Recover the amino acids of this structure.
């Protein structure tokens, strides 16, 4: 049961691209909560680091911080690093340069996005935006992913759950998942394109280097491809943060 003044720290990776960060900030501004809330970035955003966010909340008298990871998968190695830095884990399975932050407030770790129903609905909207009646198309979900044992399986589980939901919702011929870090994007895209038209949905929080450069490089020469949008901008990202806050306040 919650005790003491609470606040919310939304965790995000951060990007050298100001537009990526702006989308995150906009989503957090639209979160409806009476609790003090701020964003802490893992990197690339000066003055808004995770430790800056904790200090901001603690200055407001917050004694219990709900950390909401704005990451698409619990399998992200970055989340392992952040949990180590916050003292949630004694050791990190990933080599990290992050230093211990040692917050004064109690830290409550919330879940990442994974296959939450809101994420499914966002992807459904991305499908409808491109293909109102996807009957002869195939779908490929593309994520950053991880090749590391103990992390790859978490990525694959969440992606497969998303894929299964979308396959049940739409009459795609085939639905597959792929990950840049595993290196199977191009192979799966070529296989599916031979079966018919192909819709590629990036399972990424926002547009950036991986969506605009890396994935498109993998798709070069693959015919009949329609390319969808990322989670942001979409109002359900803000609603998801609200749900996480309400769920974990009572833990």
């Amino acid at each position: 049961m919650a005790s003491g003044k609470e606040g919310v720290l939304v965790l995000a990776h951060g990007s050298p691209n100001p537009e990526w960060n702006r989308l995150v900030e906009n989503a957090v501004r639209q979160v409806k909560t009476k609790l003090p809330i701020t964003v802490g970035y893992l990197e690339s955003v000066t003055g808004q680091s995770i430790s800056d966010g904790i200090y901001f909340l603690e200055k407001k008298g917050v004694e219990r911080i709900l950390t909401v990871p704005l990451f698409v998968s619990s399998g992200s190695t970055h989340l392992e690093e952040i949990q180590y830095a916050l003292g949630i884990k004694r050791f990190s399975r990933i080599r990290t340069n992050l230093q211990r932050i040692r917050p004064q407030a109690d830290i409550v770790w919330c879940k990442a996005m994974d296959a939450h129903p809101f994420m499914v609905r966002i992807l459904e909207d991305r499908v409808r935006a491109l293909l109102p009646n996807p009957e002869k198309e195939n779908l490929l979900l593309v994520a950053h992913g991880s090749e590391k044992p103990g992390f790859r399986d978490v990525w694959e589980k969440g992606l497969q759950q998303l894929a299964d939901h979308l396959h049940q919702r739409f009459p795609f011929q085939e639905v597959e998942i792929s990950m840049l870090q595993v290196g199977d994007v191009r192979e799966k895209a070529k296989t599916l394109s031979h079966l018919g038209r192909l819709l590629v949905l990036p399972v990424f929080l926002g547009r950036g280097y991986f969506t605009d450069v890396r994935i498109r490089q993998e798709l070069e020469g693959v015919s009949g491809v329609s390319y969808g949008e990322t989670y942001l901008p979409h109002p359900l990202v803000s609603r998801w943060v609200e749900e996480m806050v309400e769920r974990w306040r009572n833990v």
About this structure: The first helix runs from residue 18 to 29.
